[in-house]
Amino acid sequence: MARLTAVSFRSYRGHQIELRDAGRGQCAVIIHPPGGRGSPHQVTPEPEATTLVAQFNQAKALIDAVMGPRPPVMQRGGYSRRDMA
Fold this sequence. Notes:
Helix content is 24%, strand content 26%. With 85 residues, the protein is of the alpha+beta class.
């Protein structure tokens, strides 16, 4: 009998994160960097990262470590053109 593997792609800070779940604790997370920035690599799970969600969060942390801090969020509103004159 063939096994079913669920594959999902998520976008995070320009990277594509591939989530593979084959059931029974067999899951993998693969980071695909943007074009021209390296080859895909699989996240090696930490001992406490036994679930797919924990590995996904670990992948996001690795991307944040490479990309640096996130830029500040632009505040909506502020000054209008009338206030500038």
